Amino acid sequence: MIRFLLVSLVVLSSVHNCTAADSPEIHDDARVTFRVVAPKADKVLLLGDWLKRGEELAMTKGADGVWTATAGPFPPGNHIYGFEVDGVQVPDPENSSVKLRASRSGSFFHIPGEAVWEPADVPHGNVEINFHLSKTLGDTRWFSVYTPPSYHNSTEKQYPVLYLLHGSNDTAIGWVMIGAANFIMDNL
Description:
By secondary structure, this protein is of the alpha+beta class. The chain has two domains: 2-111, Sandwich (Immunoglobulin-like), CATH 2.60.40.10; 126-187, no CATH class. The chain is built from three helices and twelve strands, in the order αββββββββββββαα. The relative contact order is 0.15.
């Protein structure tokens, strides 16, 4: 844990003092260039959900201490990634798009395309985040609720309920942030 904190601190402080690490950079051909500032690192790997289990992509260190790798082209949608700096996994400190996970968070980027999960020029519903005290677990749990655009206009209309559970390394907001369930429902 100490090693993780130290490497994270070094990576984050390096990025704070340098603006050369635009990451991720999405190219017109759907390829993506990833960069991370880690001048004292010996080895940096790019990790991503598009890679096979155990597969990794070695990054190249520049004279300025910025490690770079380009991958793709990627299909439309969200793609999760992170870096491994000298054996410690960290999200991209330059990317504010964070994928919350139950065990370890990552970063993500979006490749636009024509798909049902893309935001469209249609009325949009609402997503609310709620909290519930679970007496069984003795813990407060959170969950998100989507209501369609017309939901609050009528108290008489009945709506079906769809429960989406990830069941693995995700959080309650994953179906909205990454799965775009709200946009899918809006676009039906």
